[in-house]
Write a structure and sequence with these properties.
About 60% of the residues lie in helices and about 0% in strands. The protein is mostly helical and about 300 residues long. Strands 1-2 form a two-stranded antiparallel sheet. The C terminus is likely disordered.
Length: about 300
């Protein structure tokens, strides 16, 4: 009944200096947590069902469409009755921290909410940067595959143009990987995160951080009246105007530039279509929701 997935090491490789000269197939396998498939099967063979269960859970988290791993998880779940000693094998990701933070927020535990939502924001920045690094070396993390082969083009110029196009689309899709994992949001992931966090910071009396978050939110949705009022409220309570969140604002500007370049390649009409249809692309985090889709619904926000 129990099984694992095998990956051949004979696949063609692309080299990534940033990731220690690893072939792209290795990056892909570790990205999908395939080694945990081998681990869970090995633990099962030596009779360590608890460790097998832990490994299977990690693999299944990243492979929700795997009927095989779902069956293994169900099998271990019935066999392992004492789960008190189970340990997490990986650090939380941005979306994981976001969900924990939102739960604390809904329970009005704003100190805990701020802790987890702030961690989510820092991880978001790191994960976006790493995703774009992979794009530069030819691996699309959103799609989970290498960029298309360019050998079908006739000239070097054709190859360069096609590669540039694919890399820009890949960089653009890095944003969409977050929306795939949270299905209850009525606006995009980053604005939602900033919204929850700015109110939590306000509730814990960190007005400087709340101001910075509200100001950053408005770079994404500049026409939002509620957040504009919130920013004015924070300003009235502070003696000096705080500085911006430099790293995050820099990433938002970079994302906006990526969108402008891709828009020039495929045309604004196609970009609007992708926004409307959500075809693995998310424009909200690019700060162009108001321009391209002014009627988009937004999450209810607290005002003061």
């Amino acid at each position: 009944f129990l099984s694992y997935e095998f990956t051949s090491t004979s696949q063609s490789s692309g080299i990534n200096a940033e990731y220690g000269q690893l072939p792209l197939w290795v990056i892909k396998d570790f990205g999908s947590r395939r080694p945990y498939s081998f681990l869970q099967y090995s633990y099962y063979q030596i009779g360590d069902l608890l460790s097998a269960y832990e490994a299977a859970l990690v693999n299944y988290k990243y492979n929700q469409d795997s009927e095989m791993m779902k069956g293994n998880v169900d099998f271990y779940g019935k066999k392992v009755t004492d789960r008190s000693s189970m340990i997490p094998h990986e650090p939380l990701q941005s979306v994981d921290e976001f969900k924990v933070g939102v739960t604390a927020y809904n329970n009005m535990d704003y100190t805990l909410a701020t802790q987890h939502l702030n961690s989510s924001l820092n991880l978001y920045i790191e994960e976006i940067k790493n995703c774009k690094i992979l794009c530069a070396v030819g691996y699309d993390e959103f799609e989970g595959k290498k960029l298309p082969d360019l050998n079908d083009t006739n000239t070097f110029q054709d190859q360069f143009v096609k590669l540039y196009h694919k890399v820009m689309e890949c960089r653009y899709r890095c944003i969409g990987r977050f929306e795939k994992k949270v299905d209850y949001l009525s606006e995009d992931f980053l604005p939602s995160l900033l919204n929850y966090l700015q109110f939590s910071a306000f509730q814990t009396n960190d007005l400087v951080f709340a101001y910075q978050l509200a100001a950053t939110y408005l770079t994404l949705n500049p026409g939002d009246q509620t957040m504009t009022k919130n920013l004015k409220f924070f300003t009235s309570r502070l003696e000096d105007t705080p500085g911006v969140l430099t790293t995050l604002c820099g990433l938002i500007e970079e994302n906006a530039l990526d969108m402008e370049v891709l828009s020039a390649i495929v045309g604004k009409k196609e970009m609007r279509k992708r926004l409307k249809d959500k075809q693995n692309y998310v424009l909200g985090d690019m700060g162009l929701v108001s321009e391209l889709n002014p009627d988009k619904n937004v999450l209810w926000r607290n005002s003061y």
